[in-house]
Design brief:
single chain; mainly alpha; VPDSG-CTERM protein sorting domain-containing protein; 64% helix; transmembrane helix; 0% strand; elongated; PID_CTERM
Length: 61
């Protein structure tokens, strides 16, 4: 038990004595996400469904 604690203390002391790191590279500017492909198809289908429902309501009156 004493040997384990001694090894732990001897290994931890040098790690605590080290200076903090640089923090890594600075992040780049966030990339803009274009709204195309699946999102535009989803938006167009939503508009089409809304127009269909609106026409069905007007015909029911």
């Amino acid at each position: 038990m004493f040997g384990t604690v001694a090894c732990f203390l001897l290994a931890v002391a040098p790690a605590l004595a080290q200076a903090p790191g640089s923090g890594g590279p600075t992040p780049n500017a966030p990339t803009a996400v274009p709204i195309d492909g699946g999102a535009s198809i989803l938006l167009a289908s939503g508009v089409a469904l809304g127009l269909k429902k609106l026409r069905e309501r007007r015909r029911a009156r």
